[in-house]
Write a structure and sequence with these properties.
Layout: H1 11-18, E1 24-26, H2 27-39, H3 42-55, E2 59-61, H4 68-79, E3 83-84, H5 88-96, E4 101-105, E5 108-111
Parallel strand pairs: 1-2, 3-4
Antiparallel strand pairs: 4-5
Helix pairs in contact: 2-3
Length: 112
């Protein structure tokens, strides 16, 4: 949800390094955001709605998993691609499994 709230830099540098980047959004992520948008506190619900609007421009992929983290882990493990997250627990789990992660550092996209 952070992408909906702050300007993020570094996309040009990432694309220069890795080529065109396509963000894919698992359906489980959309479901989690929908839930937050309808049941979280005012601030968090607003952030979830802004994020849903932002990610509507990205391709959605259907996943069997209902847990967003599991869907992301499964997808990147099978496809050998990068994942993007600011969730430290998920980022650490991805890195332990040899997955490169796009994340934020000081409002700039970086790969860890």
């Amino acid at each position: 949800m952070v992408l909906a709230n702050r300007p993020v830099k570094g996309m040009d540098e990432l694309e220069a390094r890795f080529g065109k980047i396509h963000f894919l959004i698992p359906t489980a992520v959309i479901k989690e955001l929908d839930k937050l948008a309808s049941s979280a506190g005012v601030k968090r619900a607003k952030e979830a709605k802004l994020t849903l609007d932002l990610i509507s421009k990205f391709k959605t992929i259907r996943m069997d998993s209902v847990v967003a983290d599991d869907a992301i882990m499964d997808y990147v493990s099978r496809r050998r691609c990068m994942a993007a997250t600011i969730d430290n627990e998920l980022k650490n789990k991805l890195q332990r499994n040899g997955v490169s992660v796009v994340t934020l550092s000081k409002n700039k996209l970086i790969v860890v």
